[in-house]
Amino acid sequence: MTDDTQARIDQAVKAADVLLFMKGTPLFPQCGFSSRAIAILDHLGVEYASIDVLQDQAIRQGIKQYSDWPTIPQLYVKGEFVGGSDIMMEMYEEGELAELMAEKGVKKAEG
């Protein structure tokens, strides 16, 4: 992976309070895990950004090295890697994900 890809990922992670690297888009997730991750974030009602790794092969490979995590989706909150959809689901069910969002001061989505 190039330093340029690493820098692009790092910049994206730091630019958004909540960022989901996923397959597809929030409206059209391209895998069940990405769909589940979006459902969790929508249910929490937080503002989030997403990056479709299917649109950029360098990002798709680079994000796995960036986080040292082999699968997508990947959730970042305030620049910190949280985990994939299984971890998100566990944390959501335990109330930990909502707590994390509140602790980090993540904005609620408008509307």
UniProtKB/TrEMBL annotation:
- Please give the InterPro entries that the UniProt record associates with this protein: Glutaredoxin, GRX_PICOT-like, Monothiol_GRX, Monothiol_GRX-rel, Thioredoxin-like_sf
Q: Which CDD domains match?
A: GRX_PICOT_like
* Pfam families in UniProt: Glutaredoxin
Protein's organism:
Sphingomonas naphthae
> Record's NCBIfam families?
Grx4 family monothiol glutaredoxin
- Name the keywords, alphabetized: 2Fe-2S, Iron, Iron-sulfur, Metal-binding, Redox-active center
Organism's domain of life? Bacteria
Question: From which residue to which does the signal peptide run?
Answer: none
PROSITE patterns cross-referenced by the UniProt entry: GLUTAREDOXIN_2
Q: Which family does it belong to?
A: Belongs to the glutaredoxin family. Monothiol subfamily.
Q: What is this protein called?
A: Glutaredoxin
Domain Glutaredoxin: where?
18-82
